[in-house]
Design brief:
2 domains, 5-stranded parallel beta sheet, 11 helices, alpha/beta, Rossmann fold
């Protein structure tokens, strides 16, 4: 049986970047580069003409930039898009905007004709484009916009709070923007998010979620302390672990499952300290990161929740955990907040009974 290759449009104003991205994608037996464009305006025309399955889109371009082109594309012809951004603070912030507008994933733009790590970049780019090409755009719900709410209640100190660790990858930032604004900021629950992102992108993600949420959301730092009513975002490019005092350690230990931060690393490190107060959550994403961490959380008496296939942009990480038989509850994204709250209340009830 002949498998049809996914058709890709490469959009970038840099001749070098267009060639590198095109050459890398052409190495995949699953992909075919059917065209290129030098700016957003040309990209929109090429999409109408070529009808690609997926688009790689530069952020900063003349005539019409990547953000404006993405916005127009999502209105007229929703198509999976992987944003290819320069590794700058501005590029990272705009990439978060792009994810809110409907982009499936982000990548850092390659640099240097034969730079160290280009092979690794190529593997990641191919994987993200292949995953994006298979996305059902009907599952990319319109971005939810919330105003920053007035915070109430004191943040919980000491140890008397539950800890929810949320892991996600492809499609994760958009899923997080959907559920984080609805999570209550009370002293009884603290949150940790481990989202696979390029290095330098976790700070803008934290800022974005902090603007939208009642929770205090920030990127984690060395010796951070987890507190009720707050959310820590694992720093991209580093593992986030908890030491035997419950403090955060940021490490450059080798990637696990090809990623850093790893959901497994964070969850596993949290089990000895937080034990049965843990709730593990796996959202959309490719790969198997998080399954071992969820197993150990369940073994310690904590709860495990996974996103249902029906709402996942990529049904990878949740699928592995679910098929391993270690997930207590499987729910679509729309029911995720209620489910998390139900489990936090159950844990609180157990404490009162004891």
């Amino acid at each position: 049986m002949v498998v049809m290759k996914k058709r890709v449009l490469v959009v970038d104003d840099s001749v070098f970047a267009r060639k590198i991205v095109s050459d890398i994608l052409s190495l995949s037996p699953d992909l075919e580069v059917v065209g290129t464009a030098v700016n957003g305006r040309e990209a929109l025309d090429k999409v109408e003409q070529l009808k690609p399955d997926v688009v790689t889109m530069d952020v900063e371009m003349p005539v019409l930039n990547g953000i404006e082109a993405l916005k127009k594309l999502m209105e007229d012809r929703p198509t999976p898009v992987v944003m290819v951004s320069s590794l700058t603070a501005r590029g990272a912030r705009e990439s978060m905007v792009a994810l809110g507008l409907g982009a499936v994933d982000v990548m850092v733009k390659p640099h240097g004709s034969h730079s160290i790590g280009l092979d690794m970049y190529g593997e990641e780019l191919i994987a993200k484009v292949v995953a994006a090409a298979g996305v059902n755009m009907s599952r990319i719900a319109p971005a939810v916009r919330y105003k920053k709410l007035t915070r109430h209640g004191a943040h919980g100190g000491g140890l008397n709070f539950n800890v929810v660790i949320i892991g996600s990858s492809t499609g994760g930032p958009r899923a997080l923007r959907s559920i984080v604004p609805e999570l209550p900021a009370d002293e009884h629950t603290a949150y940790v998010v481990v989202q696979h992102l390029p290095k330098g992108f976790s700070g803008p993600l934290a800022e974005d979620l902090n603007r939208l949420s009642e929770l205090e959301v920030r990127e984690c730092s060395q010796d951070d302390e987890l507190r009720g009513g707050e959310m820590l975002i694992a720093r991209s490019g580093y593992h986030c672990i908890f030491d035997d005092m419950g403090k955060v350690r940021v490490t450059t230990d080798p990637p696990v499952w090809g990623v850093r931060p790893s959901v497994d690393v964070t969850m596993i490190s949290a089990v000895p300290y937080f034990g049965s107060r843990l709730i593990g959550v796996l959202l959309t994403g490719m790969g198997r990161d998080g399954a071992e961490g969820m197993r150990l959380i369940k073994k310690a008496g904590g709860a495990t929740i996974a996103e249902h296939k029906s709402s996942c942009v990529v049904y990878g990480m949740p699928r592995v955990a679910i098929e391993s038989g270690i997930v207590d509850t499987v729910v679509p994204l729309g029911n995720m907040v209620d489910t998390i709250i139900t489990y936090t209340e159950k844990i609180a009830h157990k404490k009162i009974i004891r």
